[in-house]
Design a protein that fits this description.
- The chain is 79% helix and 0% strand.
- The protein is mostly helical.
- The protein folds into two domains: 62 residues; 64 residues.
Amino acid sequence: MPAEIFIIAMSGMATPILILAIVFYYTHLSEQRFHNTLQKLIESGQELSEETISGIPGYKKVMPRDDSRNGTMAVGVGIGLFLFGFVSLGNFFMGVGLLVATIGATMVYYHKKNQPSSSKDLTVGE
């Protein structure tokens, strides 16, 4: 009986690891295919414009970091966890919810503090 419980517990822990391994493997294959195609284009002497590069399979456009959006989402998740703990499960989830909400609020504050002011953007010669 304990052996079966151990096997069930280990398979439950191994499943997320297996899923992540599959995702990372196929992501790596996609990146490798993109770089191989890019290398062939460079070797052939073809001009590399933004349109050409974005048309290669596996191309990923790098998005700018948005601390305000991520922070707002973290605050929402934190409040949800807090309320979930308050209504049903107790102090542990309330504490985790407050921790996540505090991290989100810090991200929003960081975004607001490091955002360039519009008056500095308008003055070019200084």
